[in-house]
C-alpha cells in the first residue's frame, strides 16, 4: 500500500531530522502526525452515535421486568426464598452470568475508562444490583 509506505518514509525522515537537530525529548508514538484527522474524528463520532442509538432500541419491546437487572435479580431472590430446593436444582448461580450478560453489555457500550469523567464499574447500577444480590445470597446461606 503506497500510503503506508509514504507514512513510514515520512516518519523515518522526521526522526532523522530530529536526531540531527538534537531533539532528544521526543517519544516514539507521541507524534502529532499519529492523531486522527478531523474527517476521521467526525466519521468516528457519527458511527459511535449510530451504535449508541441502536443500543437504546435493543430492549425497547421488552417488558420492564425483564430488562432491568435489579428486577430480574429480585425475582430470583424470591424464588430462592420460596423454593430453595428448586432454585438449587436449577443451578441458577451458574445461569445468572449468561442471563445478565446481554443486559450488562448494552449498558457498557458507552463506557470508556479512558475518558476523564468516566463512571467506575462499582458505581454502575447493574454492578450495585449484583452486589446486593450476592450479599443477600451470602446472608441467607449463612443462616
Provide the β-strand percentage band.
Answer: under 5%
Proportion of residues in helical segments: 55-70%
Helical stretch tally: 6
Q: What structural class results from the helix and strand content? A: mainly alpha
* Cα-atom radius of gyration: 25 Å
SSE string, helices as H and strands as E? HHHHHH
Would you tell me the overall average pLDDT?
82
Number of strands: 0
Main beta sheet? none
For the record, give the distance between the C-alpha atoms at the N and C termini, rounded to a whole number. 67 Å
Low-confidence stretches: none
**Count of distinct structural domains:** 2
The rough form would be described as elongated
Brief sketch in words of this structure:
It is found in: Nucleus. With 143 residues, the protein is mainly alpha-helical.
How would you explain this protein's 3D organization?
The protein has 143 residues and is mainly alpha-helical. It folds into two domains: 1-24 and 36-57, no CATH class; 62-142, no CATH class. It is built from six helices and no strands. The protein has helices at residues 2-21, 38-57, 69-82, 84-89, 92-108, 125-142. Helix 3 packs parallel to helix 6 (125-142).
List keywords for this structure.
6 helices, GCFC2 factor, nucleus, GCFC_dom, mainly alpha, 2 domains, 143 residues
Task: Give the helix/strand layout.
Layout: H1 2-21, H2 38-57, H3 69-82, H4 84-89, H5 92-108, H6 125-142
Helix pairs in contact: 3-6
Amino acid at each position: 500500500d503506497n500510503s503506508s509506505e509514504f507514512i513510514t518514509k515520512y516518519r523515518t525522515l522526521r526522526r532523522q531530522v530530529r536526531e540531527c537537530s538534537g531533539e532528544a525529548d521526543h517519544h516514539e508514538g507521541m507524534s502529532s502526525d499519529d492523531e486522527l484527522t478531523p474527517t476521521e474524528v467526525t466519521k468516528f463520532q457519527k458511527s459511535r452515535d449510530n451504535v449508541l442509538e441502536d443500543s437504546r432500541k435493543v430492549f425497547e419491546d421488552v417488558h420492564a421486568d425483564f430488562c432491568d437487572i435489579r428486577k430480574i435479580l429480585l425475582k430470583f431472590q424470591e424464588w430462592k426464598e420460596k423454593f430453595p430446593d428448586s432454585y438449587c436444582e436449577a443451578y441458577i448461580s451458574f445461569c445468572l452470568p449468561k442471563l445478565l450478560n446481554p443486559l450488562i453489555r448494552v449498558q457498557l457500550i458507552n463506557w470508556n475508562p479512558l475518558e476523564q469523567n468516566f463512571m467506575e464499574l462499582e458505581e454502575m447500577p447493574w454492578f450495585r444490583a449484583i452486589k446486593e444480590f450476592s450479599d443477600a445470597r451470602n446472608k441467607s446461606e449463612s443462616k
